[in-house]
Amino acid sequence: MPSDTHSTSSRRNDRMVAILAMLRDRDEVPLRDMTSALGASAATIRRDVVSLAEQGLLIRSHGTARRAGTGAELPVNLRDGRRRRAKEAIAHAVASELPIGRHAIGLTGGTTTTEIVRALHHRHDLTLITNSVSIALEAASQGQQRVLITGGVLRPSSLELVGSLAESTFKQVNVGTAIVGCDGMSAEGGLTTHDGIEAATNHTMIKRAARIIAAVDGSKIGRVTLAKLAEAKDVDLLITDDSADPEELTRLRALGIAIRIVHAPLD
């Protein structure tokens, strides 16, 4: 029975991701078009649309759904399928940049950093330090022996622990390499995320690091969201994919940031 429940939840998440993808291509989509494209009943699509509207991810009107705008933060369960190939390519590139031997790495939460943990499944010489519940669980599931997770207040949308308790933990450790994901990165705006408390917590970890690697897929290069977690010039190495805006990459290079670009076929 639990596997059936998980399968149903996974299918629902897949439908919701597909609905949001349709709204990226078209500002407004009739529900009947969603029903036809996704092979689901009208009642099922209606429930999905109601749920997305309640999360502020779209605007529901009679018989249609409209795009809510670009500023809404996607819940972590709806981010997994987006730009998967780019994130996998970035993850393997990040893994290749880490020194061999005992090394402490700090990881912010996010789907790209989760892929990085998967790419490090063979590196049992590492100590992983994170405030992300999902990253800690992923690391534990693949047999990582040294995982330090902070305390703090749980943000349901990102599954990250934030606030003074999380910051206190980071202040007590020394991080060899901070691997940072974000919702936007630009030369002017720096590394940004959707939540101010989350940004402050991650900033504390970054300040404890000897080296900072930003792992950011190309769709986020040039984007600026609500709260800054680091200045762009604080980053030693940016790893992104070839969909990133070349002009923004030029501006980032001018700040002295090393940039590694990986090829990633579109999903």
Automatic annotation (TrEMBL):
Record-linked PROSITE patterns: HTH_DEOR_1, HTH_DEOR_2
HTH deoR-type domain segment(s): 12-67
Listed Gene3D superfamilies: 3.40.50.1360, Winged helix-like DNA-binding domain superfamily/Winged helix DNA-binding domain
InterPro entries: Carb_Metab_HTH_regulators, DeoR-like_C, DeoR_HTH, NagB/RpiA_transferase-like, Tscrpt_reg_HTH_DeoR_CS, WH-like_DNA-bd_sf, WH_DNA-bd_sf
One Pfam family here: HTH_DeoR
Keyword NAD included in the entry's annotation: no
Keyword set includes Transcription: yes
Keyword line: DNA-binding, Transcription, Transcription regulation
GO molecular function: DNA binding; DNA-binding transcription factor activity
Domain of life where this protein originates: Bacteria
Full protein name: Transcriptional regulator, DeoR family
Provenance organism: [Propionibacterium] namnetense SK182B-JCVI
